[in-house]
## 1
Amino acid sequence: MKELFQHTAITDGVTVRVAVNFLPEQSRIEAGKWFWVYHIRIENHSDQPLQLLTRHWRITDGKGEVNVVDGDGVVGEQPVIAPGGSHDYVSGCPLATPQGSMEGHYVFQGADGREVKALIPFFPLAAPATAG
């Protein structure tokens, strides 16, 4: 099954694409826990290799509570993406509400030492009405 990327942001030659899916089998709605999985594809359209150094996420739940997550790399990696190349990873997000949103940015370092801050597009987290 080919995944469709629903959200895209382009910043300084870096394209970030996101596909998000609600996972009812990982959720415990009776306990107030909803879970989504998201697939990110980062494409390097610049003329030099870029290394992903850090990530910054702003996760907002349905009550407006904001959780900021900063860290090194993504899922334990700090990949170097060649010009014309891409890097894919999958991660997940639990919430205490049946809807919310995520957005943020990555910081890359180019081979020339310059830092590039690439936006992660805003994307909604929404459980189907029947799931909550």
Note: Residues 27 and 85 are 34 Å apart (CA to CA).
## 2
Amino acid sequence: MRIRFAKPEDAAGIAQVHVDSWKTTYKGIVSDTYLNTLSVGERWNRWEKRLMEPDRDEGVMVAENERGQICGFLDFGESRETGRLNEAELYAVYLLQSEQRKGIGREMFRKMIGELQRRGYRSLMVWVLEQNPAVHFYVRLGAVELERKEIRIGEETFTEIALGWPDISRLTI
């Protein structure tokens, strides 16, 4: 397994992981009708644009399996909620179901924390659906609940939780 910064040519692999992960992670949570509308092609276009025009305050990392295929990704940058300096946000992290529970997510997270510290960030937060099993992953890493809000996905309303680490220098991963 190898973790590295994403390149524009990784857009297709990231898009595939994005859609496949949504379909497995949110099965039974988000309606099948909505999940069936997810398009790798549409995500591919978004990711290609994102990677072709990178923002200097953001980063995308990918995890490659032993066959060199992208099996996960992590997207991060300045907090979109506060916009304050030194406050980072984990925008998205997805890992194929077949690659979960192998330490890959933890290793991607660890590398992101190192990069955030190198860039001068002091805190980190992530928004996650309340029913998402990843809530437990973040709590085990020391995240505390910051707030909640209601969001719409398709025709349904869900609770999203903001989890955070006020001082990433104290994180032990």
Note: The chain has a mean pLDDT of 93.
## 3
Amino acid sequence: MNISLIGFMGTGKSTIGHKLAERLNYKFIDLDEEIVKIDGRPIPTIFAENGEKYFRDLESKATAEISKDNNQVIATGGGIVLRPKNIEYLKSKGIVVLLEASAEVIFERTQHDNNRPLLEVADPLAKIKTMMEERADKYNCTEHQIDTTALSVEEVIEEIIKIMDNE
């Protein structure tokens, strides 16, 4: 069984994913890192030179490939939900958990990260709020949802383990 973490950027998918994988003795997969391996360029470069559609194509290809294996914790990119097929791939081999946080906390967590091409705008907080609203329905593709705004990494991991125990 795989545990796939979805949610907007800055909700803790990679940080929590690493620690959860260690705790479960699972392999940790960062989907963005897999995309970089496939293409050979950093994500901001992919966006700048080929655009978002090309990036999303790579993301779907990587998701289909990764979903074939078991005993993995998969940290996805925030836009994974933009293509329903990606969620089907992830659900085919395990549990999908949505990590959420407030727009303000997401802004705080991402403001010093230069690897966020979609936030390279004049008002990143407004962009975060707009994108969260646009994706809200798509993120509701799983009944497993955890708000990370006020929880520690350990508390989120405990919640995920409870979800696994009930599956």
Note: Helices lie at 13-24, 31-39, 43-66, 84-92, 103-110, 124-139, 153-165.
## 4
Amino acid sequence: MSEILFTDERVVRAISLIWSEAKLLDDKNYPEWQELFTDDGIYVVPIDPETEDFASSLNMVYDDKRMREMRVERMMQGFSPSAVAAARTVRTVSRFTVESVSDSEVTLKSAQILSAYKRNHFDTLGAELTHTIVLDEGGDRIKLKVVRLINSEEAVTASGYLL
């Protein structure tokens, strides 16, 4: 079934948006990244790799629109450890699987490898991503982004960039 869905124009649009998001994050274009989300969109990085109840779980990040705006402001001000000498990143998002498709929404899972370089040190983070994309003629948007780091239950050194 998944093979057929990859020819579906709605799925192609959702994958294109996810790849565009990755490029914006690598370019540190955080204001434009924020615009990719719906007004009620959530960006979450849970600690528990199995949880689906993000609002009641402990998370590294659980951002609604207001919190994303505050996080982006900190990333761009230069006064926080995450903004001073921010890491350079390159991420690859691949291995897409289609969870659901309708005329208004697509949910995809994928794998992300993020390489970060800061102060003569490389870090590599792997994650399972889930994106729910709202399809709209005025522009597709992210309703939910879940980043399940493969080492989420350990100390994570993801300072200086968004996942």
Note: Residues 2-149 form a domain with the Nuclear Transport Factor 2; Chain: A, fold (CATH 3.10.450.50).
